[in-house]
């Protein structure tokens, strides 16, 4: 059995989180778990490690053979990346295939309490902070000292990070809170109301609410943003697969990926955002990855 220190060293070498291994074991990984590095399980990873993916997640990792699979038709995979499907189906698959490791991409697995299931969680707070900064940069380009942006949807803790990002980039910008239920009709109405009050960019968390809010913004020829614009689950998934190829697996815990890993960055931008702001947006993402305020 390898020591905990050796396990941490191996973990750093494969850059599982690409997040700066250091002197403290807690600096190597952002993990929401009480388990120690000594509980990592090592296996021999053969060439062409069999990896399954449920759903669409474009990946290419040397040493891994990655194929689409279904949770009700597994066999021979060392690792399965779960991008969609109900929790009940995952629990049943994990129980039936104890030899397979499962990584739940973009969601927590802590509540499942399964030794062979890991949650791959993206830092929503960093993604929305970056979104706020980019919304502010776009609004300032159009409105100057009168820059106004809006958060659309239910009141939630993430809104504070949106406001923080806005003021990181443009301290004088005004943030409108367009509260609404998460139903599409309500979100669209709230977005249009915020635009009537002077907002030139809107942002919502995601889902049908965000789709409707962005549709409303587009009707007024304004850009809209959502959380997924700044989250790259494929980056996190690639690092999970690289770790598996090296023989390192997690289970029964969450692993958290943030800006330093590359999983929080600019994935896509509304085409109504100007090329000049797009350049500044990527600069802001790099600043966040470096631990700085995303000012662009």
Describe the protein's architecture and organization:
- By secondary structure, the protein is of the alpha/beta class.
- It folds into two domains: 4-123 and 233-261, 3-Layer(aba) Sandwich (Rossmann fold); 125-229 and 266-289, Rossmann fold.
- The protein is 36% helix and 19% strand.
- It contains eight helices and 13 strands.
- The strands form three sheets. It has a seven-stranded mixed β-sheet, with helices on one face. It has a four-stranded parallel β-sheet with strand order 9-8-10-11, with helices on both faces. It has a two-stranded antiparallel ribbon with strand order 2-12.
- α6 links the parallel β10 and β11.
- α3 packs across α4 (158-169) and α5 (184-196) runs parallel beside α6 (207-219).
- The longest helix is centred in the middle third of the chain and has 20 residues, at 124-143.
- It is elongated.
Spell out the key features of this protein:
296 residues; Rossmann fold; 2 domains; seven-stranded mixed beta sheet; four-stranded parallel beta sheet; 8 helices; 13 strands; 36% helix; elongated; disordered N terminus
